[in-house]
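User: My advisor, Dr. K., asked me to get a structural model of this assembly before our group meeting. I'm new to this, so sorry if the format is off. These are the inputs:
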Amino acid sequence: MIRILYVLYGMLVLGVLATAEYNGWSLASINEVKNVPRSVRDNPGSYRSVYGYYHHYTGGK
Amino acid sequence: MNAGPPQSSAAPAQAKALNCPHCGASLTLRSFNNAVTIVCSSCHSILDAKDPNLKILQTFEKTVETDRPLIPLGTRGKIRGVQYEVIGYQRRTIYVEGVPYSWHEYLLFNPYQGFRYFTEYNGHWNDTSTLRGLPTIRPGIVPSATYLGERYRHFQTAEASTTFVLGEFPWQVRVGEIAKVSDYISPPRVISSEQSGNEITWSMGEYMAGRDVWKAFNLPGSAPQPVGVYENQPSPVSGMTTSIWLAFSALMLALVVILIGCSAMQRDEQAFVGDYAFNANGARGEPSFVTDVFELKGHTSNVEVVTDTNVNNSWIFLNYALIDQDTGHAFDFGREVSYYHGYDSDGSWTEGKSKDSVIIPQVPPGHYYLRVEPESDPGMGFIRYSITVRRDVPNYTFYGLAFLALLVPAVLITWRSLSFEHLRWAESDYAPLMGGGS
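Assistant: The format is fine. Below is the predicted structure of the whole assembly, which you can bring to the meeting.
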């Protein structure tokens, strides 16, 4: 019974994997923005990224 | 430990009423002329059932209050389709390093089928009957016994003494009687030898769930929960480890097939590449810019953006927006690329990488451009970097996650199986060394 459940679980995992690969899923943190004005193309500074205030790491050991 | 009762011939199914010569209490003889000894439940005298006057053979201290049979004497139940009656009950005890371990044996009788046993230890039950033949013993580091083609591994040998008796028995039972008992296991079965003097009796037990005993005898309440792992208790994952790993191997093969198939079908094509430089020293005005428009073909799929820089003990942060010029739909993300290295008392060290990659999910086909806004610390000088955009690339993270998702259950089942066997054999003569090294 456990073996059957494991095989079914494995097939589900592989199914999700194939779906993820086909549809191009990703785990990256991406913010989607709609209706970005066409003027950005001529004036890139008119658009501000949500990551613009990111606190940058300036370290090293 | 299991012991087999002596064989008996069939007898009429009727009880005979007698009286104890010691205390006068009434006795019920359930196995009729099969009984050799009978124990008075009132005064606990062991009586000679073959003697017309029920000669007293032995008396022992009354401990019935603390040792009440879980299945009362006289209870009837069906075992393998045959009705049996509980006619005798005894407690056997072994001492291991001075610690007593006791189990209980219920003698069952059917006038046509004879005798069989139930044994019970800490909520673990065995249905036991005498062997018709002799097993073949093979000595070794772990001796084994072969019976009817099945190999049983030696588990334990100990001297067991009878410490309590009740009811009737088809042999000369005595409290204090000592026998050498050896168990050989092949879960869910166990074969046991019991040597008393020159006489050796072999029996076979098969593990039973307490609830099945309760059901067979229609006992009130529920069976006591078993404690620990018993010698011949079948593992819940018994024999499953090999098949799970076989299934794992098959699934791994399927994973490789998916990898090859997806790799063959995916476009994995370069959609854009550009080289840039950012002057972190004297950047004035708006640092952001946009790239040329490029086309992302095919169905909705991922896009990989690779940033390759020349950062050296420095960093650059790039605010990215992948914008569909037709719909205005943007994928906004930021990437920090930093690479540091040096030498200290621990030796040389490095941190970070000068190259970065990110996969953007589910980007519809269309015409896109990138808005890029670089940032860095003033004084970093010129930082050169290239941006490469690839369409419909394999995401190996998912393959790694799928591998782990398939591996973890197989490892857990194996671990459970091993720990179950570890607990089983911890109670044997071959106990693996424990933490204390005892």
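One thing worth pointing out at the meeting: The radius of gyration of chain A is 21 Å.

User: Perfect, thanks a lot.
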